[in-house]
Design goal:
heterodimer, A: alpha+beta, archaeoglobus fulgidus dsm 4304 fold, eight-stranded mixed beta sheet, 9 strands, globular, disordered C terminus, B: alpha/beta, Rossmann fold, six-stranded parallel beta sheet, about 35% helix
Chain lengths: ~220, ~600
């Protein structure tokens, strides 16, 4: 039986003071063409939520509320999820696929991975990656703690390049991620799809306020899920 | 800070600290049955427990009972909506052999500068709009090698493709030479490959049919295309052949094959009109047939969507979207309504590396000799025209206009010319700075009269009376001979097909009827590769027919400006109409209205 084509999910959330938090998930094929798009209505946490959740509110909204819902609603299987907020890395604890973080500044967001970096099926066993995977070419560099000593513990995260864009991945996901990335030869830009999601969310939000135009709609090739 | 003490200790209430046992409302004070009590000491400044003391020991903790205070907050919830896009719509065309575009890493660019497909305003369903918005930007597809062209397209051409792709009604109105054909072909190619269209009809003037076939072989070599031609039986077969997705027909042929096209059940997913100004007259048979072709998408390509009046645009829109524009609509309203359907770019707008084009109007008063001759000729000419009454034709008026324009160039009796005086003065400066100039005139006769006065600038001639075999050597001499500072050209011979971008000065000794022809002439020097700013001097004899013509042409440019104000300034409008030519002398055209 032929292996199903890999799909690439992109997830981001727009935070707006007026409308609230709106999330979008775009599923692409290996060439970067859209397969599916899911987006939420804006979420507006109440004052009580802000008090109760405190500093954890952002992560709760991004991962528990919006992210989970969008992944659940996605009709097509996701091979890998790319996000551009480190809070979304928390999704990885409940997902069977790798969640990788677009670390544009390449700063340290390691702690997010510290919490969720263990392999999904081995989170309690603390297994290590096979050493043969170290030579894979798409690795940009390893986490600083790895550079100092050959006996140092496995870093929780690594930087990897996805179609020209830097992403931070959990070390435990490296083999799987690199296998998926290797099949993305036609993806033009690894980070650009986030722009598409933002454009699409803006479009969806503007639809609400847009006055009905005078001309009738014409039918287009997209079917509501 | 909780502080348990083992011995009897008095309350410690100092400063702002207050024992809540002494009657304060926020005191957490729990007297026991044995007279023992637990006292919390609060600091009002920080609203927190500062100290806690027991005044009676031992403290019986069993007496303390935890109490829960339920806080009812509903979980944060939202809902999601989504769309699935069919896989069949995602095919890209195959790679063109020997294509220039190679996969390359693109630098990160401002997202707002991406060449993204934007849905038009008349698409209102959210899923339809998102289908286009969520496509990868064209520049990235080109950069990654997924979308292939034989030559690297200019950014504005990608914008043109992104504009056309989602539109069911569109006018591509780029200035001549910016590649309307390439943009249309590339978009058709994408639509065919994505399965959005399966049958395309291209309609163009007959001389351009072979040009379209040739361009398709360059930009979309994998797309089968055929020109509809031959005898009636062959044409009918071609019209009905489903194996050919792109058919090319000329306007005249549509008249002959009207029944086949309109009544045999044909349907086209896209009909594209080249030189779409052909259908500006809504009452013409051509326009009626074109409008009746069964189709889903309608595109119009034209460099001059408006030639004489805003109604020209109404004619084109009657094909695109019948009834959307109406004759007599205020221009501002028309411009606003049509904005989302039209894309127009000029060279000035899109060629960043092009030097500026500087216009300088030389408004000249005729010499006394010229003025006397001119006044006499005009007054006598108008009288003669009026005497013709019902016999008056546009040809009579036209002859008078030409005669007067020639006097504005040179006084026929004395040869006196204010324009030549000015030209010589300007040429002194041009030659002294080592630059070269092109002088355009409508008449070879005028060019001959200029020659003696310009002799010291090494003038060369290039007009209809110069044999074709000598023309290349003249251009070559002008380019390389430092003693030749000026070339004198007629509009007819020199306005097209020449690359004279080494010239930095253009003189329009007299004005042509149609600004488009003037622009073509000027663009001999102002074209890709020009090294410096091009100064264009337009000579105009004041208070003469030239000024009146210029006023009419300026009004046309203004009209164009109003209609396409956000699409960039026009470089060409149309020529003078019959009524406008009569109006130059305040005459009424027979059977027509009087035009002041």
């Amino acid at each position: 039986m032929a292996k199903a084509a890999e799909t690439l999910g992109y997830y981001t959330v727009i935070e707006d003071q007026d409308t609230g938090w709106t999330g979008g998930l775009l599923l692409l094929n290996q060439a970067g063409r859209p397969l599916e798009f899911q987006c939420t209505l804006p979420v507006r946490p109440s004052r009580a939520h802000e008090i109760l959740f405190g500093a954890t509110l952002r992560e709760h909204v991004i991962s528990e509320v919006i992210g989970k819902l969008l992944i659940d609603r996605c009709r097509n299987p996701i091979s890998m999820l790319c996000c551009d907020m480190h809070e979304a890395v928390a999704l990885s604890k409940d997902c069977s696929f790798p969640v990788i973080f677009h670390d544009e500044s390449q700063q340290e967001h390691d702690e997010a991975f510290e919490r969720f970096s263990k392999p999904r099926n081995e989170r309690s066993t603390n297994n290590r990656e096979p050493s043969s995977s170290h030579s894979l070419p798409s690795l940009l560099h390893r986490h600083r703690s790895d550079a100092s000593s050959s006996h140092a513990p496995e870093p929780s995260s690594l930087m990897i390049e996805v179609s020209g864009a830097p992403f931070r991945i959990a070390s435990s996901d490296r083999v799987k991620v690199e296998s998926i990335v290797a099949g993305l030869g036609d993806l033009p830009d690894g980070a650009e799809p986030f722009e598409r999601i933002r454009e699409a969310i803006k479009e969806a939000q503007s639809q609400i306020s847009r006055a009905a135009t005078s001309r009738p709609a014409t039918s287009r090739p997209a079917s509501a899920a | 800070m909780w502080n348990r003490q083992s011995g009897p200790t008095p309350n410690r209430v100092t400063g702002s600290q207050t024992s809540l046992r002494s009657g304060y409302p926020n005191a957490i004070d729990k007297p026991s049955d044995s007279g023992r009590s637990l006292t919390a000491v609060l600091d009002p400044a920080i609203s927190g427990v500062l100290d806690l003391t027991t005044d009676v020991m031992p403290l019986d903790f069993e007496d303390l009972q935890a109490k829960s205070l339920p806080i009812r907050v509903s979980p944060i919830k939202t809902t999601a909506n989504g769309f699935v896009f069919p896989e069949s719509k995602q095919t890209l065309p195959p790679k063109i052999p020997n294509a220039a575009s190679k996969p390359q890493k693109r630098p990160s660019i401002d997202p707002s500068k991406r060449h993204r497909i934007q849905p038009p305003k008349d698409i209102v369903k959210l899923q339809d709009r998102l289908y286009y918005l969520l496509q990868p930007p064209l520049d990235l597809l080109v950069g990654s090698g997924q979308l292939n062209f034989p030559f690297d397209p200019f950014p504005y051409q990608l914008d043109g493709i992104a504009f056309l792709f989602p539109r069911y009604a569109a006018v591509l109105a780029d200035e001549m030479g910016l590649g309307k054909t390439m943009q249309a072909i590339s978009t058709i190619r994408l639509l065919l490959c994505s399965g959005e269209v399966r049958s395309v009809l291209l309609v163009c003037p007959k001389p351009l049919v072979t040009n379209w076939l040739r361009e398709f072989s360059v930009w979309a070599p994998e797309i089968p295309i055929a020109a509809i031609e031959g005898n009636a039986a062959k044409r009918e077969f071609q019209w009905k052949s489903p194996e050919i997705p792109v058919k090319v027909a000329n306007y005249e042929l549509l008249m002959r094959d009207k029944e086949t096209v309109l009544d045999s059940g044909l349907h086209f997913d896209l009909v594209t009109l080249d030189e779409a100004q052909r259908i500006k007259n809504r009452n013409s048979t051509t326009s009626e047939i074109i409008r009746a072709i069964p189709r889903t998408r309608s595109w119009a390509l034209t460099g001059t969507p408006v030639e004489n009046s805003p109604d020209d645009l109404v004619g084109i829109f009657d094909y695109l979207s019948p009834g959307y524009l109406k004759t007599g609509m205020p221009m501002a309203e028309m411009a606003n309504a049509s904005r989302d359907y039209i894309i127009r770019r000029t060279k000035d707008m899109v060629m960043d590396d092009m030097p500026p084009k500087l216009y300088r109007d030389a408004e000249l008063d005729l010499t006394p000799e010229q003025w006397a001759t001119y006044q006499s000729a005009e007054s006598e000419g108008v009288i003669q025209l009026e005497e013709l009454d019902q016999e008056l034709t546009i040809q009579h008026v036209f002859e008078l206009v030409l005669r007067l324009k020639q006097i504005c160039n040179f006084d026929p009796a004395t040869g006196s010319s204010i324009k030549l005086e000015r030209l010589v003065a300007d040429m002194e400066e041009v030659a002294a700075s080592g630059k070269k100039a092109i002088v355009f005139s409508q008449w070879v006769h005028s060019i001959h009269k200029m020659l003696p006065a310009l002799k010291r600038f090494g003038p060369l001639e290039y007009h209809g009376k110069v044999p074709h075999r000598k023309r290349d050597s003249i251009i070559d001499q002008f380019k390389h001979d430092p003693n030749c500072s000026v070339i004198l050209m007629s509009y007819g011979a020199g306005s097209v097909g020449l690359n004279l971008q080494f010239c930095e000065y253009v003189f329009l000794f007299d004005r042509w009827w149609n600004p488009a022809i003037e622009d073509q002439a000027i663009n001999r020097a102002h074209r890709i590769g020009a090294k410096g700013a091009v100064t264009v001097t337009r000579m105009l004899a004041m208070n003469t027919i030239e000024q009146r013509i210029a006023t009419v042409l300026d009004q046309k440019r203004e009209m164009f400006d109003t209609l396409f104000s956000d699409q960039g300034g026009p470089t060409s409008g149309g020529g003078l109409t019959r009524d406008e030519i009569f109006g130059l002398f305040d005459l009424r055209a027979p059977g027509g209205k009087k035009v002041a």
